[in-house]
Amino acid sequence: MKLSTRGKYGLYAMVYLAQKAEEGPQPLRAIAQLGLPDQYLEQLLGSLRKAGLVNTVRGSQGGYQLAKSPDAISVGHIIDAMEGPLNLSECAMEGEGACPHSDGCKTKRVWEYLTDRINQLLYSVTLQDMLESKEMD
C-alpha cells in the first residue's frame, strides 16, 4: 500500500492550515509555497471543503481555514477525503468492488483485521497531535 500524492499533499495542506489556524484564512498562494501546484492544490482543497474539513472565506482577506479545531480532525478524516475509504484488499470490501470469492476466502479475516487496525490508527492521530509532535504509540 502506498499513499498517493493526493493524500500526502492533502495532509501537508491541512497541517499548514492547522499551524496557521490562529492567523485566519490563508490564501491559496501561501499554502502553495509548500511546493504544491496551485491548480492541483485548489482541487485538493475543494475535496477537503466537501468533506467539511476546510472552509473558504471570500474577499481580499479571504482564503482557506480549518472548519474544525485541529484536535477534531484526524489523519483518517483527511485520507478518507483525499483517497476514499482505505481497504488493503478487495477481500476487506463490502458491496461493489468486493472480491467475488470473499465468502469462502481464508484470507478475508486477516485483510479485514489489518484494514481495521490501520484505520483505527489513522483516526487516532489528530492534526493537534502532529502540531505537538506527540509520540505515536
Number of domains: 1
- Quaternary state of this entry equals single chain
Residues in helices, as a percent range: 40-55%
Total beta strand runs: 2
Spatial strand arrangement across the major sheet = 1-2
Number of helices: 6
CATH overall fold name? Arc Repressor Mutant, subunit A
Determine Rg (CA atoms, Å). 17 Å
Task: Outline the low-pLDDT stretches.
Answer: none
Q: Encode the helix/strand succession as letters.
A: HHHEEHHH
Beta-strand residue fraction: 5-15%
Q: What would you give as the CATH superfamily? A: Winged helix-like DNA-binding domain superfamily/Winged helix DNA-binding domain
The CATH architecture assignment turns out to be Orthogonal Bundle
Could you characterize the architecture of this molecule?
With 137 residues, the chain is mainly alpha-helical. It has a single domain (5-131), classed as Winged helix-like DNA-binding domain superfamily/Winged helix DNA-binding domain (Arc Repressor Mutant, subunit A). The chain is built from six helices and two strands, in the order H-H-H-E-E-H-H-H. The chain has helices at 5-19, 28-32, 38-50, 75-83, 108-124, 127-131, and strands at 54-57, 63-66. It has a two-stranded antiparallel ribbon. A hairpin with a 5-residue loop joins strand 1 (54-57) and strand 2 (63-66). Helix 1 crosses helix 3, helix 1 (5-19) crosses helix 4 and helix 4 packs across helix 5. It is elongated, with a radius of gyration of 17 Å. The protein starts with a helix and ends in a 6-residue tail after the last helix.
